[in-house]
Every structure is written in structure tokens, then in C-alpha cells.
Amino acid sequence: MAWMPSWQHNGDWFNACAAKQGKEIDTLHAPDTQEQLGGAQPLVGEDAAAFDWGQQSLRSWGIFGVLLTGVLGALYAVWIQPGVGAGAGYLQAVEALTDGSPEGTIIALLAIFGVAHSGLAGLRPAAEDVIGARAYRVVFALVSLCLAVVPIAYFINHRYDGLQLWNVQGVPGVHSAVWAVSFLSFFFLYPSTFNILEVAAVDKPKLHMWETGIMRITRHPQMVGQGLWCAAHCLWTGSSVVIAASVGLMAHHLFGCWHGDRRLRVRGVRVAVPGVLECSRSPPGS
Questions:
Q1: Burial letters for 125-161: b for 16+ Cβ neighbours within 10 Å, e otherwise?
Q2: pLDDT tens digits for 121-171?
Q3: C-alpha neighbours within 13 Å on the C-beta side of residue 45
Q4: Number of structural domains found in the chain
Q5: Range(s) of the domain holding residue 117
Q6: SS3 of 200, please?
Q7: I need a labelling partner for 142 at 20 to 30 A (CA). Which of 7, 25, 66, 151 fits?
């Protein structure tokens, strides 16, 4: 990791950054000696691909299973269930605003989700001080789930609606290329979903500083993965609805990149090179 400034490997400095942020940063058993890494520098941040069965709690995963089952069941009964769930009324209200235009409807649904999702993320520091990190994560997840499931279902049902701008589905190799790019796109998602117990608020949410894996390519893997997914689906379907959905998705992800970096700066963290976060004050000896 010669591309990283040497002071970033200083454990004391890393801990000082963590203390300044006022957050508990969970490091995943970084090797203590260079011999364990074959002479390489030990990790200061976390190994994004590390998974240690010895660190897993059967109780935590049991709680996660119960919560997941309960939340999904309640989501279906209250929001999704045909003829009963409130999601259908929400969709009808949005369609009324867009005069039934499928392109306008998918853009509106994604815009509402984006405002709620990013807005709640921006309110997190203040809200966590009031109700706690776990409780706020539950509120955040419930609102996001309800507002995400409607555009997902709408996209699936209307992806071939609107104008058909091109059709390359019969071109040799296109189908395989679309599958390959779509499959690749999901490899960019794992840093944001790896700590699923924290996502579900079973474990206390922490600030993670990944130093390996996809984060060596981009600090915003979900945005890159979404871009790959959108490109593949636009190529395959060629419909105006999919293009409109892709524009909405990428607009939200690009805004999310800026918004996430801004929130880190507010917390006293600045971005250096890909995958590395620095404390905003000067390092020792600089």
C-alpha cells in the first residue's frame, strides 16, 4: 500500500481520528505483524471481505431472523397486500399527479424515495442524540423499505412501457453481456451490506473504514454498481421507462455521493485517496 501516506498507518493517529469523530470504529482483527502479511503493512482500516465465524453471535443472528420475518410480514400486511395495503393508494396518488405517464410516475416515485432516504440520513446525527442509534436505524429502514418497494414493483411491471427506442435483444452476445454486467454490478454492493446485523440495528451501528476490496477502486461502490446495472438494463430493454428510471436512480446515487462526503466532513472526516478517510486536523509530524 505504498500509495497511502505513511502516517495513515499510525495506529495512534487512527485512534485519535476515531475519538475526534466520537464514534466507535470496529476493526476486524488486522494482523499485528508484517510477518503475518508476508511483509506488507498491517491494516489500519478494516478488511472489507473479512468474515470470522468466531466473532458471530448465534443470539444476534436469531434476533435478526425474528426481526426480518416480523418486519417483512408487517410490511406485506400493511403496505403491499393487494386490496388492503396502503401502498396501492400511495401509487395511485402518484399516478394521478403524473397523469398516468409511466416515465413520470417512476421518476416521481424515485424522487420521493430519494428525498426521504437522503433527508433521513442527513437528520441522523441530531435524531440519534434524541432516540438513539438503534431506534433511528429502525425508523430509517422502515420508511426506506416502504418507499422503495413501490418503485421496484412498478419498474418490474412497466419496464417495457413507454417508447421503444431500440431493440438489440436478438443481437448475438448481447444477452450474455447484459447478464455479465448485471452480475458484476452486485459485487460493488457488498461493502454497504456486509454488516447486515448493523443494517438491521441488531448490533450497534458503527462507522467503518474499509481499506481493501472494492473500496480500493471507488469510495462509492453502490453508485458504480448502480451505474453498471442501469447501463445493462437500458441496453437490453431499450424502453423510455427504463431510461427514465436509470436517470432517476443515478441522480439519487450521485447526490448520495456528495451528501455522504458532506456528512463525513461535518463529522470531522475528510476524504483522501480512494478507500481512505482522514481526520480533518493535521497528522502528527506534518
A1: eebeeeeebeebbeebbeeeebbebbbeebbeebbeb
A2: 889 889 988 998 888 888 998 999 999 999 999 999 999 999 999 999 999
A3: 21
A4: 1
A5: 57-279
A6: coil
A7: 25
